[in-house]
Structures are given as C-alpha cells and as structure tokens.
Specification:
The strands form four sheets. Strands 5, 6, 9, 10, 11 and 12 form a six-stranded antiparallel sheet that branches. Strands 13-1-2-14-15 form a five-stranded antiparallel sheet, covered by helices on one side. The protein folds into two domains: about 190 residues, Glutamine Phosphoribosylpyrophosphate, subunit 1, domain 1, CATH 3.60.20; about 110 residues, no CATH class. By secondary structure, the chain is an alpha+beta fold. It is built from 13 helices and 15 strands. The chain is globular and about 85 Å long. The chain starts with a strand and ends with a helix. Helix 8 crosses helix 12 and helix 9 runs antiparallel to helix 10.
Length: about 425
C-alpha cells in the first residue's frame, strides 16, 4: 500500500510519498520498501506525478510508462495542468504496448474473475445469513438464487450511481458481447463449476454494467501536480486508471484542487489517508463514522423507549402511530452539520490558514511529517506495516520547476554524473 500527500499554496507545490509496496502471491504477502511513486512528467516543465494502488498498467510498470511519455514528449508544454492530463490519457490510448490485444484479453479475463468472486462471495454470505435465520424451511436453491439476483441488482445500482466512463458512452451490450466472448465463457464456466445460479443474460449484463462504469475493483491512482504555462499558482488533479477494454480506456478524473486568489492552500492526502485525515480534522475517519452510527441508533432507541413509555401510560393506537411516524432525521442531519462545522472551524481552517503562509521549507517539513506519522502508526499498532521506507519529497515551483528534496537512488552519484544530468 501507499501514503501520498500534496501540499499546495501560492508559493509552491510539495509532494511526498513513502516507499512501501505490498507484493501478494496467493495467501503470501511481502512488503518491499524500495518503490518509486513520484516522477517528473517533463524534463523541462514544472509538472510531476504521483502514483498509488496497482504498480502496473496492462502488465507494464507505471514507472516505464511515465518515463516513456516523458521521453516521447520532450520539450512539449501546455497552458494548464488539465491539458497535461488530457495529453497523457491520449498517449495511453495510442501507445501500442498499452493497447496490445493479448494484454487487453488478459485484463478482461482478470476483471471477469474479480467480478465473479465479488458477486459470488457476497451472495454466499447473504445466503448463509438467510439460512441461519430460516424458520420457514425455505428452499435452499431458491434462496441462493434470490441472493445472487439481489447482489447483481445492487452492483448494477452501484454502477449506475457511479456513471458510465467517457470512453464507453456509445458502447452497446451487443458490442461488448461480440468482443468479450472469451471472458464471458470463463464467467459461465465459473458459475457452472461452483453451481452458482442465475440466468446467463443477467450475469453478462451485470459484467457489462461493471465494465462500462466508473466503478473499479482494481486501479492505479495517478496524481498530476504542477503548473501550466498560463498558471501562476499550482494545481493538483487525481485520476483513477483501470485498464483497456476493446481499445477503450477505463478511467475517471476526480475532483481537482487549484490554488487561487481566494484559496490560499490545500492539503491533499491519497491512498492510506486515515492518519493524515485525523490530523486535518481532529478525529479518525472510523471514529467519526462510528459516532454518527451510534448517535443515529441512539435516536431510534430513544424514540422506541418513548413509545413504550406512552403505551404503558395508556396512549391510544392513533397516538402511538403518530409518534412512530414522527421523523427525527432533521435532528440527525443537524447534528452531522454541527460536527462538520466544528471540525472545519476548529481544525481545518486553522491548518489551512497556516499552510497558506508557509514558506517552502515549512511545507517540506509538513509533507514529510505526514507520511512519517502514518508510517509510525502502522509500526506501533497491530496492522500490516504497509507504509514505510524512505520518504521521497519533491518541490514544484513556477520558476525553479521540479526539484528533488529527498530521493532514494539505486546508483552512486559521484560515479554516474550523466545520470544526474538526465534526472
């Protein structure tokens, strides 16, 4: 796994990343602390990228792809960071090694496997729970079929909620079936092997909805940071890039952050963000979610207790029904808004105000510290140490461009001066 952060103000953008990467082979896992996750996107322009998630794209290491793009686009510049993003996406679409037919076929087969196990494991869990609570001697086969169909419907709903990827807006089910015959056959074989019920058409339609959607089981986060020719302040734009299907790219451009006259600073964590979010908001994300759930449950419990008390006191059925129909949602939503306002006013505003006035040295210290404290938390708790190793840090300014502050190297500088010139 990974921890990345981008800290931006009107002076510069500072980016930092750990060096840990988790390699999995079946049930075996190994963490290696030598991965590179920050790269120059241009040798001459003030633009860089960070990566997290999958280290490969279509069986090619991202490090190779990014350096290939850099070499093929030497001397090229754009007016905005968004144009760099668009150009990089177009590069992927036309790079022959990325759209290799065998790689696309392998990728789609792997996605079929992920989709199948995502549905089947979820359906089996729902089925086991249903059978444990079964008091009516319900038919096993019908119950499993219902669980499968319900799971497929939920996935379809999730896919529709995320929306259709831009490269798939005109991609029909029939086109997909014609292209994905091998992957669909594999899906059908897995269903037969495991005696997983459900009409083939529903499984295929579900797989199609998943492939064309912006919902990904596996992807790489690619974060662009820096300046375009027309920019005086930095911008950060994160992407999710999954893979190619029928020469169409599965990707999503996420919400960006741009420093403006009315926005002095931003702190943008990626991948394993829990500790950095705790620092920014004053509460761990899981604790925040738990508090909201407990408050919601307490409101329901208080309402039920009131109903029981009124019933014992002789309230009529009409009065109890009216009390039951009385919604407390407005109280819960008010509580959430008050908590959010408190977090923002007490923690976020102060931190961003400080970051807005930071010089570059302060930003470097903060970025490195945020990664290091995430590493420390993983080290001292009973969790996998998936953040670790040297912390790479780079500064990007409009005038100086991309400058390394900390960067691990696999060669000795004094013996390879030509390498330093290239970098």
């Amino acid at each position: 796994m990974t921890a990345l952060v981008g800290i931006l103000n009107k002076r510069a953008a500072v980016i930092a990343a750990d060096s840990a990467v988790t390699i999995s082979r079946g049930d075996n896992k190994k963490v290696i602390n030598t991965a590179n996750k920050i790269f120059r996107l241009s040798k001459t322009e003030p633009i860089g990228v960070m990566i997290y998630g999958s280290a490969d794209f279509m069986n090619i290491p991202w490090e190779v792809i990014i350096k290939l793009y850099r070499d093929k686009n030497a001397g090229k510049s754009f007016d905005t960071v968004q144009e760099y993003v668009n150009d990089f996406i177009n590069f992927l679409r036309h790079e022959k090694h990325c759209i290799d037919k065998d790689s696309q076929s392998s990728y789609l087969s792997l996605e079929a496997l992920r989709f199948y196990y995502g549905i089947s494991h979820g359906a089996k869990a729902d089925y086991e729970e249903a059978m444990e609570n079964n008091t009516d001697n319900v038919n096993d086969a019908k119950t499993l079929l219902k669980c499968v169909n319900d799971k497929l419907k939920r996935v379809e709903h999730s896919c529709k909620k995320e929306g259709v990827g831009s490269d798939f807006e005109d991609y029909s089910l029939q086109q997909f079936q014609n292209y994905a015959k091998e992957a669909i056959e594999k899906l059908e074989k897995m269903c037969k092997r495991d005696k997983m019920p459900g009409a083939k058409s529903k499984w295929v339609k579900g797989f199609y909805n998943y492939i064309i959607s912006k919902l990904y089981f596996d992807y790489t986060g690619v974060v662009f940071v820096g300046y375009g020719n027309d920019d005086i302040y930095p911008t950060i734009i994160p992407l999710k890039i999954a893979g190619f299907v029928d020469n169409r790219l599965r990707f999503l451009i996420e919400e960006s952050d741009t420093i403006k006259n009315d926005n002095d600073a931003c702190v943008c964590p990626y991948a394993q963000t829990d500790i950095m979010t705790s620092f920014m908001k004053g509460i761990h994300p899981e604790m925040y979610t738990t508090v909201l759930e407990k408050v919601d449950n307490s409101i329901d419990a208080a309402k039920q207790k009131m109903m029981d008390s009124f019933a014992k006191a002789g309230a009529t059925d009409k009065q109890l029904t009216k009390l039951k129909e009385t919604s407390c949602d407005d109280l819960y939503e008010k509580f959430k808004e008050e908590i959010k306002s408190f977090m923002y006013d007490t923690f976020v505003t102060g931190i961003l105000g400080a970051v807005g006035s930071f010089n570059i040295e302060d930003m470097i210290t903060m970025a490195e510290s945020l990664i290091s404290i995430t590493n420390l938390q993983r080290h001292i708790t009973l969790t996998e140490e998936s953040v670790g190793g040297p912390v790479d840090v780079a500064v990007i300014t409009k005038s100086e461009g991309f400058v390394w502050v900390n960067h691990k190297q696999w060669f000795q500088q004094q013996m390879n001066p030509q390498m330093m010139e290239r970098r």
